[in-house]
Design goal:
Elements (H helix, E strand, L loop, with lengths): L1 H40 L4 E18 L4 E15 L2 E5 L12 H10 L5 E7 L2 E6 L7 H26 L1
Helix pairs in contact: 1-3
Length: 165
């Protein structure tokens, strides 16, 4: 019995460290790419474009006995010209998800009706990459990146402590 207790105490710190590493990696994975994209997207130039098509696309996610579960995606296509070359795009925002709840999707469709002139932000190195909305880095993204780094630091400090003892 004493051997089992000693074994549990021995593995408690490495398991805690492993959990912290996994949590840190998850936070880092979710936060850092969005922060990088948001940062670079802020420097993109804009041109005036036009909404070519604005409509719903419904996607059946699951079907249960009570009712089907749909995700609603606003399909918004726009055109714009950079250096006398016409491009088409469908990206609303680089850091948001395609699938929205019905109300948010409806808001986006109202915001971007067919025929409306809009600002289109494009990557100057690759003008075919564009979006309609720029997003500033969010506090959640920054905190997620910081917590990811802190989790890694604590995990490695715990592992170092176990190795020394």
């Amino acid at each position: 019995m004493n051997k089992w207790i000693s074994l549990c105490r021995f593995f408690r710190v490495p398991l805690l460290a492993l959990g912290l590493v996994m949590a840190g990696a998850g936070l880092f994975y979710l936060a850092v790419p969005k922060l990088i994209i948001s940062y670079h997207n802020q420097t993109w130039p804009s041109v005036v474009g036009q909404i070519v098509d604005s409509r719903w696309q419904n996607k059946l996610v699951s079907q249960n006995a009570a009712r089907p579960n749909f995700k609603f995606t606003p399909k918004i296509e726009y055109s714009y010209i950079v250096d006398n070359t016409e491009y088409k795009g469908t990206t609303i925002s680089l850091t948001s998800y395609d699938e929205l709840d019905r109300q948010l999707g409806k808001t986006k469709l109202e915001q971007y009706p067919t025929g409306r002139r809009v600002s289109v932000y494009y990557d100057p190195r690759n003008p075919g990459v564009s979006c309609l909305e720029q997003e500033k880095p969010t506090l959640i993204g920054v905190l997620g990146a910081i917590m990811g780094v802190v989790s890694f630091y604590i995990a490695f400090a715990l592992i170092r402590q176990v190795v020394k003892s």
